[in-house]
Amino acid sequence: MAREIDHRSPSPPYRQIAAYLVADITAGVFAVGAPIPSEKELCEAYGVARNTVRNAVRWLRDAGYVETVVGRGSYVLDRASSTDKAGANESA
What is the pTM of this model? Predict the structure, then answer.
């Protein structure tokens, strides 16, 4: 993970981290059901505080990219099937 946070960007650091993780998820770097890096690993990789990483993971969770299991980590969700289910509910 050789990506860096641009502190001069109008996008806050947590959104930049979330964008990098979304890119990795959509590229298949992290498969459905696979864990994303731990908070500690992300803090070290990006040189940010734990709260910044927590905000990034919260954004991913709220957007439906990952689910978090307390004490275990955050795992990639299958967005295609959740989108299909949502679409089926809307047409009913």
Answer: 0.84
Q: What are phi and psi of 53, to 5 degrees?
A: -65, -40
Beta partners for residue 73, in sequence order: 69
Residue with tokens 């954004």: 59
Q: How far apart are CA 12 and CA 32, in angstroms?
A: 27
> Which of these CATH numbers, 1.10.150.170, 3.40.50.2000, 3.90.830.10, 1.10.10.10, describes 13-91?
1.10.10.10
Copy the structure tokens of residue 52. 């910044």
From CA 16, how far away is CA 5, in angstroms rounded?
A: 7
pLDDT value, residue 79: 85
Question: Quick one: which of 13, 18, 31 has its CA closest to 62?
Answer: 18
Domain ranges of the chain: 13-91
